[in-house]
Amino acid sequence: HIFNVDDQIDFYRISRLREIDGEAVEYEVSYFDRRIVPFISREIAEHSIYHYLENELKLKISHSQRKIVFRYANEEEKKAIDLGEYDMVVNVTSTTYLADGRPFQYGSISYRPDKIAFTSTAKRHV
User: Fold this and answer.
1) Residues 71, 88: contact at Cβ < 8 Å?
2) Closest to 108 in 3D by CA, of 55, 30, 52
């Protein structure tokens, strides 16, 4: 529904786990529209997907919309993340758009609560 397509459209599903000091503290799952991103290899995913998208595929990435929630970890996150004493995660979902307005990526990153901090800047135009 994010991409406003039917189930005939193919997507890549890429999951990545990031560690700090040997602990798995961040779990990411991303979906890429294969009509826009026709190929992603393991090597590309392990290096930099966005480097590949911008420099090899020459995609013009414009912006993303993000939502941050604090929620109980699901079963996939419990298996992937070293949650320790926590049963919750900080989850950031985002939809990323090209300069022409088409969404090409939907992603979800879950963090162990004690290993993440967000900073925001609010600016007034005068």
Assistant:
1) yes
2) 30
- On whether the CB atoms of residues 109 and 91 are closer than 8 A, the answer is yes
In whole angstroms, give the CA distance from residue 95 to residue 64: 5
Do the bridges between strand 88-98 and strand 23-33 make them parallel or antiparallel, or are there none, so unpaired? Answer: unpaired
What pairs with residue 65 in β-bridges?
A: 95
What does the alpha-carbon distance between residue 32 and residue 113 come to, in Å, rounded to a whole number? 27
Residue 69 to residue 90: CA distance in whole angstroms = 6
- pLDDT for 107 equals 96
pLDDT for res 47:
92
Contact 121, 45 (CB under 8 A): no
Number of other CB atoms surrounding residue 73 within 10 Å: 20
- β-pair partners for 68: 92
Per-residue pLDDT band for 75 (boundaries 50, 70, 90) equals very high
